[in-house]
Design brief:
By secondary structure, the protein is of the alpha+beta class. The chain has 4 helices and 10 strands, in the order H-E-E-E-E-E-H-E-E-E-H-H-E-E.
């Protein structure tokens, strides 16, 4: 990572996405930090001035070679120092591959297998379950003068559970 990239990164905002295709979830084996050796959902830090949805698309392409479209917001984790938002990452195109840096492998794993796999962390498992079950918050349109503002909420017109 260059000094310019380091300076352009908002280290207190990060995103990830759950991409499910044909009953399989896309996971990456992390190569550093507390996630070293674990299979996690792809994601990363938001750049300064970047929307979380844009960061998701960029991070997926950089880490996996797969193009995704952000979908429902599945969950947000807050801590005193940062936040982490997880979206559905709808598969658009691409062949999954490792970036050879932040991950050592990128694989499509059967959802049930991923939920039993010891190297898949609990947070990743919870987000996979949310994505597979269709839960989460949707973008709801509303009138605003700001084109880059989005409202994520439970859509009363979608499922009734």
């Amino acid at each position: 990572m260059t000094q310019e990239e380091i300076n352009a990164t908002n280290w207190s905002q990060s995103v990830a996405g759950v991409c499910i295709r044909d009953g399989k979830v896309l996971l990456a084996r992390h190569t550093y930090g507390s996630g070293n050796g674990k299979l996690i959902i792809p994601g990363g830090y938001v750049k300064i001035g970047e929307l979380p949805q844009e960061a998701l698309v960029r991070e997926y392409m950089e880490e996996t070679g797969v193009t995704v479209k952000p979908g429902r917001l599945l969950g947000v984790r807050f801590s005193p120092k940062d936040w982490y938002a997880v979206f559905v990452a709808e598969y658009v195109e691409g062949v999954a591959r490792s970036d050879g840096d932040e991950n050592s492998e990128v694989i499509w794993m059967d959802i049930e297998e991923a939920l039993q796999e010891a190297t898949v962390p609990d947070l990743t498992k919870k987000m996979i379950v949310c994505a597979a079950s269709g839960t989460g918050l949707e973008i709801l349109p509303y009138e605003t003068k700001h084109p880059n503002m989005f409202l994520y909420a439970k859509n009363p017109e979608s499922r009734t559970e």
